[in-house]
Write a structure and sequence with these properties.
The structure holds two protein chains of two kinds. Chain A is mainly alpha-helical. Helix content of chain A is 73%, strand content 4%. Chain A contains 18 helices and four strands. Chain A has a two-stranded antiparallel sheet. In chain A, strand 1 and strand 2 form a beta hairpin. In chain A, helix 1 packs antiparallel against helix 9 and helix 10 runs parallel beside helix 12. Chain A is elongated and about 95 Å long. The termini of chain A are far apart. Chain B is an alpha/beta fold. In chain B, strands 5-6-7-3-8-9 form a six-stranded mixed beta sheet, with helices on both faces. Chain B is globular and about 55 Å long. Chain B has a single domain, classed as 3-Layer(aba) Sandwich (Rossmann fold), CATH 3.40.50.300. Chain B starts with 8 loop residues before the first helix and ends with a helix. Chain B is built from eleven helices and nine strands. Classes of the chains: A mainly alpha, B alpha/beta. The interface between A and B is medium-sized, with 25 and 24 residues.
């Protein structure tokens, strides 16, 4: 089923993809945390006129000239955005939108004008061609290494050095620019340097994933990583891991998935973006605290606890009324829940040894009785409080207290007692049981 | 930074923790602060009081250079702010930062030590201990490892205060530290302010509640675009001054401000 992998080709492609993803994700963490994800998008488009200008001025298509052109346009993008925001009085995303479409269009015009002399292929600019870029190799340390790998490796090194050297400054100026300025951090310089490096990373990624898909690498791995952790350092490391995973999964998917459906293998760059999107989706669902599943589980846990307490209170009230055991059917009827839910809750209560199942129905254990007594106590204290202090009418007292009783601990009961002058009965005349 | 005991009035003015001369600040040409002059003596606790939009927060921001001023000057212990940053701890409004940022309460407090620690040195035990000590003073040491978005509003405010404490400043500028916090937090903050004051520090606080202002602060600054009055609480809190501050006597100034803004708009293309 799966295509044959060759380290000579596939190994380099995956490495190039991984280096690109890591370079972009590293900077992307700070873009995402500054709520400036759009800036990555903007700069990667806006570098186009920089490249065209650098080429037209020098006639060179390679090397540091292009990077210099790109970096200066990156800084220019931020500068123009800031100007548009201040003088146009529009919000930041609108001014970014205006500036980068303007620059991108300018770049396209320049490329078309120079089309006779430049072999800049618009398609290649947009989504790169990681597969063919492996052909051009250069010797390094006695090895023959694809040029694109060397370029991306250098970019990753530069970005890593930047983040490592300015880590503390980046952290403070991202969280609280005011504090950073007060402590003498060159906040603006850092912002422009970040923009410049984003531009350099975009250009370095042109040949591999193209300047549209690099946007995915700026944004998606950091966002996914943010879902998984609450620590900046961990987030950065995780974003790198997710970037590498995107490259590996993306390449494997590119050469395998289309074949399953009878097509030729597809572009690795495209699949990398798809893979990172898939990883993000996975994180959205299954992230430990912020994921949908864990939120759902927490909600279930709360409803299970509340219903469990309602069952205990019902058993307690029945016991006080002289009824020693309550059948499941009776519980289902009085609590208005489905039979299945009631069974689950009772299993849960039995597991925690709060109720026991006898031949004539459910009974409270000693521990269960204490819990139940405190719940009923909370309920009646709240009823009294709501009636005397909040002036609520008798008909709505029960519903109010029914909700509050589940969130009332011993300390709060004591305060209730003090604030409503230690009542002995609730407004309906029923006795308030003592603390168990 | 140690201040020597001041003996003469002249010297006091020169070395006052905070001295503001004729500050004017405008947003889009509309004046927010107009010719404000203010001296804050050492070891005092000053409440900055006035209605919404009176420029209280702007005054603090102008002092630390966060908003540009059209005219006037600010002296911190007789020097310009940017020569004397470490002497000042500014506590911004709680909403000014994104609390979803991946950091713990301890991380945020540690940020306060960076100014003295430098930006490239290693974090040592000393800084970590100082951060824990500050959290303990604010009674939230048990929350040190808690993600900041998981803290209540009051706990977030305490975290900000703890961060200001580790900065070991001599002048504290706090922008509405009591906004939307619980009573226990308000007490804790007032207590820490009194502790700072008795250690000779100076505290300037933007405050909204007139009733508690009388109780908390030994000096009051009444502000409504212009400086209305400044001085000892008992002297400043007069009906006349409050009427001037809150009684809408600034309509003429507001009108001229609006007129300036309108002309500015119609002139721009």
């Amino acid at each position: 089923m799966s295509a044959e992998l060759s380290w000579e080709i596939d190994g380099w492609i995956i490495l190039a993809g991984a280096l690109c993803a890591m370079s972009a994700a590293l900077l992307g963490n700070f873009l995402v945390l500054r709520r400036q994800s759009l800036l990555g998008d903007a700069i990667s488009h806006a570098v186009l006129p920089g490249l065209a200008a650098a080429f037209l001025l020098t006639g060179q298509r390679q090397g540091w000239v292009m990077f210099l052109g790109a970096a200066s346009v990156g800084v220019l993008t931020v500068l123009l955005t800031e100007l548009a925001r201040q003088f146009g009085r529009v919000d930041e995303s609108a001014s970014i939108g205006v500036v980068f479409t303007f620059l991108f269009a300018l770049g396209l015009v320049m490329i078309v004008q120079a089309a006779d002399s430049v072999d800049l292929d618009p398609g290649c600019v947009l989504y790169g061609s990681i597969e063919t870029s492996m052909i051009r190799k250069m010797p390094l340390f006695g090895l023959s290494i694809p040029r694109v790998v060397v370029t991306l490796g250098t970019t990753l090194t530069i970005n890593s050095l930047f983040v490592a050297a300015f880590y503390r400054m980046l952290k403070v100026s991202t969280f609280d620019p005011q504090l950073a300025r007060a402590q003498g951090v060159p906040v603006n310089f850092l912002h422009y340097a970040l923009a410049g490096l984003v531009a350099v990373t975009s250009v370095a990624s042109f040949e591999s994933v193209g300047n549209i898909l690099v946007v995915a690498m700026f944004v998606v791995p950091p966002v996914a990583a943010w879902l998984l952790t609450d620590r900046l350092k961990v987030m950065i490391v995780l974003s790198l891991v997710i970037g590498v995973l995107s490259a590996v999964l993306g390449h494997l998917a590119a050469i395998n998935v289309p074949i399953w459906f009878g097509y030729r293998s597809t572009s690795t760059a495209g699949m990398m973006a798809v893979a990172s999107g898939g990883l993000l989706f996975f994180c959205v669902l299954f992230a430990p605290r912020k994921g949908l599943l864990s939120q759902l589980l927490r909600q279930w846990e709360v409803s299970l606890r509340i219903l469990g307490e309602d069952v205990l209170a019902t058993l307690y009230r029945a016991e006080v009324a002289g009824q020693n055991a309550v059948r499941l059917v009776g519980l289902v009827r009085s609590l208005l829940v489905t039979k299945l839910w009631a069974r689950i809750v009772i299993e849960f209560l039995q597991l925690r040894r709060l109720v026991s199942r006898e031949s004539d129905g459910l009974r409270l254990t000693t521990a269960g009785r204490s819990r139940a007594q405190n719940i009923v106590r909370s309920h009646r204290l709240w009823e009294h409080y709501l009636a005397s202090e909040a002036g609520m009418s008798n008909e709505v007292l029960h519903d109010g207290a029914e909700r509050l009783e589940h969130f009332t601990d011993r300390q709060m009961r004591e305060r209730l007692l003090v604030e409503s002058n230690a009542p002995s009965t609730d407004p309906h005349g029923r006795p308030i049981p003592p603390e168990a | 930074m140690k201040t020597t005991v001041v003996s003469s009035v002249v010297k006091m003015s020169a070395d006052a923790p905070l001295s503001v001369r004729d500050i004017t600040v405008a947003y889009h040409r509309k004046p927010v602060l107009w010719n404000v002059t203010l001296d804050v003596p050492g070891a005092s606790m000053v409440g900055l009081v006035g209605p919404n939009g009176a420029g209280k927060s702007t005054l603090l921001k102008a002092i630390v250079g966060m908003v540009p001023r059209i005219s006037g000057e600010v002296r911190i212990f007789g020097k310009e702010y940017h020569h004397h940053r470490s002497a000042v701890a500014y506590v911004p409004q709680r909403e000014s930062v994104d609390w979803d940022f991946p950091a713990t309460a301890l991380d945020v407090v540690m940020m306060g030590t960076y100014g003295q620690l430098g930006w490239f040195g290693r974090v040592t035990k000393k800084e970590r201990q100082a951060a824990h000590e500050a959290l303990r003073q604010m009674e939230i040491e048990h929350l040190a490892e808690r993600q900041i978005s998981q803290l209540s509003g009051g706990q977030q405010q305490r975290t900000f205060l703890a961060r200001a404490l580790v900065q070991q400043a001599d002048l504290y500028l706090m922008d509405e530290p009591f906004a939307a916090v619980d009573a226990a937090t308000e007490n804790a903050i007032v207590n820490i302010m009194r502790t700072l004051q008795s250690a000779g520090k100076t505290i300037v606080v933007v405050h909204h509640d007139l009733h508690t202002a009388r109780e908390y602060f030994d000096r009051i600054v009444l502000l409504n675009t212009r400086l209305i009055a400044a001085g000892k609480t008992a002297d400043v809190f007069t009906d006349e001054n409050l009427q001037k501050t809150y009684g809408g006597k600034l309509t003429l100034l507001e009108e001229v401000g609006d007129a300036m803004r309108r002309r500015d708009r119609s002139n721009s293309p």
